[in-house]
């Protein structure tokens, strides 16, 4: 799940800081984590990345992904029906990891 964390936060930081300043990934080379993705997991990571704008949010921040987008993504990526359940579970595992990161970053009520 470290890949989910690295994927989400590296891209988020790059988009927030680098693009408006016309910087490139090379300018952030020391800050960008490198991670390996096993070939069997690549499609799940691609789907998770494609859903990065699909977070449902509440008063405390993101609460989960909008799953209604998945059927469209399955079609766009020609995912066989037999693989969809496993990919859904894989995306959910990455979602849970990122939600735990959000919770860690949220200020506690004691602050």
Explain what this protein looks like in three dimensions.
With 111 residues, this protein is mostly helical. It is built from four helices and two strands, in the order ααββαα. The chain has a two-stranded antiparallel ribbon. It starts with a helix and ends in a 6-residue tail after the last helix. The relative contact order is 0.16. The mean pLDDT is 80.
Helix/strand structural class: mainly alpha
Number of helices: 4
State the assembly state of the protein chains: single chain
Portion in strands: 5-15%
Helix fraction bin: 40-55%
Unreliable stretches, pLDDT < 50, 5 or more residues? Answer: none
Mean pLDDT: 80
- For the termini, the CA-CA separation is 29 Å
Total strand segments: 2
Order of helices and strands: HHEEHH
Radius of gyration: 15 Å
Strand order of the largest sheet: 1-2
Tell me, what's the shape? globular
- The tally of domains stands at 1
List the defining traits of the structure above.
111 residues, mainly alpha, 4 helices
What's the helix and strand layout?
Layout: H1 2-18, H2 42-50, E1 55-58, E2 61-65, H3 70-76, H4 81-105
Antiparallel strand pairs: 1-2
Helix pairs in contact: 1-4, 2-4
Q: What would you say about this model in short?
A:
The chain has helices at 2-18, 42-50, 70-76, 81-105; strands spanning 55-58, 61-65. With 111 residues, it is mainly α.
């Amino acid at each position: 799940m470290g890949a989910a964390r690295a994927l989400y936060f590296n891209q988020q930081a790059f988009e927030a800081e680098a693009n408006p300043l016309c910087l490139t990934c090379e300018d952030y080379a020391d800050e960008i984590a490198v991670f390996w993705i096993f070939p069997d997991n690549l499609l799940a990571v691609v789907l998770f990345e494609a859903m990065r704008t699909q977070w449902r949010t509440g008063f405390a921040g993101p609460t989960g992904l909008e799953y209604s987008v998945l059927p469209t993504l399955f079609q766009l990526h020609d995912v066989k029906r037999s693989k969809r359940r496993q990919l859904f579970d894989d995306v959910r595992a990455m979602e849970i990891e990122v939600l735990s990161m959000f919770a860690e970053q949220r200020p506690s009520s004691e602050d």
